[in-house]
Amino acid sequence: xxxxxxxxxxxxxxxxxxxxxxxxxxxxxxxxxxxxxxxxxxxxxxxxxxxxxxxxxxxxxxxxxxxxxxxxxxxxxxxxxxxxxxxxxxxxxxxxxxxxxxxxxxxxxxxxxxxxxxxxxxxxxxxxxxxxxxxxxxxxxxxxxxxxxxxxxxxxxxxxxxxxxxxxxxxxxxxxxxxx
Length: 180
Hints:
Helix content: over 70%
CATH class of the largest domain: Mainly Alpha
CATH topology of the largest domain: Rna Polymerase Sigma Factor, Chain: A
CATH architecture of the largest domain: Orthogonal Bundle
Distance between the termini: 46 Å
Order of helices and strands: HHHHHHHH
Radius of gyration: 18 Å
Largest sheet: none
Number of strands: 0
Strand content: under 5%
Structural class: mainly alpha
């Protein structure tokens, strides 16, 4: 039995120190996932609190599938809770028209520090930010995104295309200003 499995078993037996160890181990990662959706740290703190309550109350139903499965499970909970928060508190605005994407090449993403890229994504409008996160980081299809957000598949593709266009401009501006 590996360390993750032992930790889960300890939590299931009610060991509060094990709960703290899980929190300490994954709270930074959960914050990074949450920041992709919710750039406001005060709002994110509330969402993460709800996430960890959900994690600890549903851990008995979690099926361990090997190293990394806890991390993936936590990421899904954070992404879902963040989307629910945004749906309750932000105004999503979607469109079905897909703009022409004239410049589909890599705009230099690899040259951007991760925290800067996260900040750029955080500046996107809520709908764009949600779709790009779900498509790129959660690796969902536009059909899955549409089902999750209650929109049409074309709306998801449109939001993704528009988000890429805005990010491309931000990245090019950053690269120009920082001469990377």
